[in-house]
């Protein structure tokens, strides 16, 4: 029963992560599910749902089609809809039922691409991972299939360095104005944000990402893209969120990495205080790790990060830890005296602790926005 949650919610699932990452790119995202995944996504996870159009569909999988393996209906519905709407690409996202049935999504994607002539790919979700996994792989697919090789002969203004921000979704950063603050922070240090993966930019802009000098991974979601662009075009990358306290350090790391052609560096793990942490932060490792490093730099108070998300071990420092499950998190917080986290964590925090609210859309949805 240690995997059950009775007080706090779970984090946004991988299927919603796919939809969030691809929302603004002009493609068509299809969840293969009876309906539940779509209702959860549009009522809880997506800030842009009522203000900005996107081609997000649910297949309406029926029991008889699932049992009999009637994939042709799924394929026909997608090809007909695509012929009417002409999306830039088609993304298929799985859910628990087709996962249990062993639905051959890669084969279905190949059939749809052949019949429509539209790039089609499958993001291997099953509703059992968190949003970092789904959004990360979705953007990885975009990087693998659409980013063009840089034109090194093309002349451009070199007075400002170009940087791509990787891993920007409302699930971690909330509304667009928060993203604009990150851009302004970097601009103040001479960096021109060339593309943002994937808020505020379209697919055409992302296709030209290879023209930038370097990539900045601002959340764990962006790490998949950074690795693809490193392998394809040897584009260097740095990891860290450019908040107001850490942006100077990140700017120096970006400049050093570009000029010296060094290996990737995780900025917020450098020069951290080694003493026992006074402040505990809970959440996504890059954004909260950068905030922890900023707090230490600004106030001289040691901080640690408790990460409730999987596959993030490499993004954590020595004092930090991956803590999975409600019981484990409640136990890890017993000695915490100052806590920074989403408000919905408050019920499992010690009564005598000081709690600072920092809403996280991937945890509490639209409640605090």
From TrEMBL:
SUPFAM superfamilies in UniProt: Helical backbone' metal receptor
Sample GO molecular function, one term: oxidoreductase activity
Source organism, top-level taxon: Bacteria
Ranges for domain Nitrogenase/oxidoreductase component: 28-241
Protein name: Nitrogenase component 1
Organism of provenance: Hominiventricola filiformis
Taxonomic path: Bacteria, Bacillati, Bacillota, Clostridia, Lachnospirales
